[in-house]
Here is the input.
Amino acid sequence: MTVEPGLAGWLQLTLTPGLGATSIRNLLGRFGLPESVLSAPSKQLESVVGSAAAALLRSKETAPAVERALRWAEAPSHAVVTLADTVYPGLLLEIPDPPALLYAVGRLELLARRVTPVTLGGGLLASGGGGGKPLALPNSAAASLRSRP
Here is the structure.
């Protein structure tokens, strides 16, 4: 897979200690794309994330981790999906604190699909009456999903 030129900036943001998803979204909201965040004046960065996080963002501390992640993304079927990518899962955007990026392996087009969530529950020690039910439930749920238009 080809690595996009701006990916290093996304990785720098997400791999900087002390920057969580909310801080990263605040930075992106204020400055735009990661390249703009990283080129912003220190005082402006500090006004969004504080002086300690701004200093870490400017340091070279995360450079080795960014390089490892870029090498990982170059492997076949590997990808780093950012908030700006069209394949970023829409359902994740609906949660209060979506991750700024995802490390993905496999078919990226599947990330963009909206699926019907299914929750299965059960205990490790089932009662006599419920012993066979956990295995029957997924088959039944799958059959009902296949029969939907």
